[in-house]
Write a structure and sequence with these properties.
Bound molecules: calcium ion
Oligomer: single chain
Number of helices: 2
Helix content: under 10%
Order of helices and strands: EEEEEEEEEEEEEEEEEEEEHH
Distance between the termini: 29 Å
Length: 280
């Protein structure tokens, strides 16, 4: 893999720029009055976008991460992100306040494997997730009601199949399934594993951003190296619209930096998923 991130995701959601107190630049009609008619647009879906129709027009907010993850420290990555707000005419919206949240939606068990030198002279390392009893390779966050408290029924046992070896075609040969005890007494994964938002290289923590004259705000997601890519983060960017909130959702596995893969640094430092049982 030559790129430092696995892709670019853009999520759009609707917003009616007038009502949230922001203003578009140089637009005619885009800062129209309240009481506009026809605000009956849909508010469904994530990933592909949401469109609300207000007075026959729609606005949107784009939310994405950059093409290169930065190494913030020996233990942390910093993933550049941007949000851009435009009105229904495609005009930038300045001074729109966008609230940001991060949540570890899924976690996974797994290990870093060194590529066969015969097949890869660089001997890159790559992550491989263990198989769960449900047949997938990620596990939902145990904190089902997201209250950061371990409630009855939330400490959930898992059954996992690690990998014994790889066949001649490179496919994994799984070991017999074995249980992961449920009695660890903690929520897995804890909320901080998805990282926190910071303003810039100063790493000043933030919980919201305000768009500039171009309708854009830049920030970063700061997270620990050990959790990439074993956490699937769910990030949300929300902005108030007519007394309620519209939210864009971006879900992706935490990105790791290419140098740490080519050098097997992550494997050598952490071995595998931090959620693996220490006895494995
Ligand atoms: Ca809970």
């Amino acid at each position: 893999m030559n790129t430092l991130v696995k892709g670019l995701i853009i999520v759009a959601l609707s917003m009616f720029v007038v009502s949230c107190g922001s203003s578009s630049t140089g637009s005619t009609g885009s800062t129209g009055s309240t009481g506009s008619t026809g605000s009956t647009g849909s508010t469904s879906s994530t990933g592909a976008g949401v469109t609300a129709i207000v007075s026959g027009t729609a606005g949107s907010i784009a939310f994405h991460y950059g093409t290169k993850v930065a190494v913030a420290s020996t233990t942390q990555y910093s993933l550049p992100m941007s949000v851009q707000v435009v009105d229904s005419y495609g005009i930038a919206v300045a001074n729109a306040k966008v609230t940001l949240t991060a949540w570890p939606k899924y976690y996974s068990f797994g290990a870093w494997y060194a590529q066969d030198p015969a097949k890869d002279p660089n001997a890159n390392c790559y992550p491989f997730r263990f198989k769960t009893a449900a047949g997938g390779n990620v596990v939902p966050n145990e904190d089902l009601n997201k209250n950061l408290t371990l409630d009855a029924g939330e400490n959930i046992a898992q059954t996992v199949q690690g990998i014994l070896t790889f066949d001649t075609y490179g496919f994994p040969v799984y070991a017999p399934a074995f249980p992961v005890p449920a009695d660890d007494g903690i929520l897995t994964p804890y909320s901080a594993t998805a990282g926190t938002f910071v303003q810039d290289a100063s790493l000043q923590p933030i919980s919201s951003v305000t768009t500039d004259a171009s309708g854009t705000a830049n920030f970063s997601l700061l997270y620990l190296k050990a959790f990439a890519p074993w956490i699937v983060a769910e990030l949300k960017a929300s902005t108030p619209v007519i007394g309620t909130e519209k939210t864009a959702v971006l879900t992706f596995e935490l990105v790791y930096a290419e140098p740490d893969v080519t050098s097997c640094t992550l494997r050598n430092s952490y071995g595998g998923s931090p959620f693996n049982d220490p006895s494995w």
